[in-house]
Amino acid sequence: MIVVLTGGTGGAKFVDGLRQVIPSKDLTIIVNTGDDLEWWGLYVSPDLDSITYVLAGLLSKERGWGVKGDTFFCLQAMGDLGEPIWFHTGDRDLAVHLLRSKLLKQGKTLSEVSAEIAAKMGVQARILPMSNARVETRVETPIGELSFEEYFVQRWYQDPVKSIRFAGIENAGPAPGVVDAIMSASVVLLAPSNPVTSIGPILAVPGITEALKQTPALVAAVSPIIGNSAISGPAGILMAAQGLPVSIAGVAQAYREFLDLLVVDHRDAKAAEELRQSGLRVHCANTIMGTADEKIELARQILSQAESPASNENAAHAGSDLS
Questions:
Q1: Interior CA angle at 271 toward 191 and 230, to 5°?
Q2: Which domain holds residue 171?
């Protein structure tokens, strides 16, 4: 079983490659829910939706989110009625939010609802929210504290960031199956997602980082950073706000407690050699997933590296000297 920790558009692209290399039934996807929000009175889970859509073959490749070929008549009508429309929910996407909200109001957990929606869409992979508890990523800025979606979507991540916190994390626990999946995995992969606000909330759930430290599986990550900037989005800004170097060294530092293998872009070959001196295993590949073939090739490379004898010898999570 391959276990993937993921969030954001980079994570969805990575899962898209994996699903074409290994059977979907062998995939367990643990998904960030720190971005979840209430929108027009409905419970929206952007990362759960993106992963479900990509595994169902429905994700819009042009936008990187939402359903391909979707229409936005409801969005237009809500705008005409004076309602906020900065969060662009498509009509088919809206149907999922309606169903999720209905099932949650009936008393089902987010895990149960996610599994039911995935099954209705023909998804064979196992999709697990990081927690059934409500955890919200909050971004402190000069204009006040914003939800992640307000910071990222409404304001286009233009505000300086003072700090990030995960509201409700102290009362959260891993969703059923999350720890068991990590402990029984053959390989655990961290997608090239934002280390702070896509992977960070998952790691902050009590018990999950400990499971990653204890699992006998190799733990590998793909860097979302090339050189000194993010491939896309605000990862670099948020890493800097958390005191992490905006580099592959910063990615390694974020995951240092459990990381065995880091996959970085070819353009970071020199920095990769420096990281190897710290004791971390680093592999260079093309991490830009601009085409279907590039997604597949990256998935194949990381799985090949994870299955190599050197990886098996390294999978003790001894940690490297990155502090």
A1: 45
A2: 1-41+124-323
CA distance linking residue 84 with residue 209, whole number of Å: 37
Q: Domain with 235 in it: what CATH number?
A: 3.40.50.10680
Instruction: Assess if residue 79 is contained within a domain.
Output: no
Q: Rounded to an integer, what distance in angstroms lies between the CA atom of residue 281 and that of residue 109?
A: 39
Instruction: Provide the number of structural domains found in the chain.
Output: 1
- Sorted by sequence, the CB contacts under 8 Å of residue 254 that are 6+ apart come out as 195, 196, 199, 200, 239, 244
| CB-count exposure of residue 174 (10 Å: 0-12, 13-18, 19+) | buried
| pTM, full prediction | 0.94
Q: What is the pLDDT of residues 212-249, one digit of tens each?
A: 999 999 999 999 999 988 888 899 999 999 999 999 99
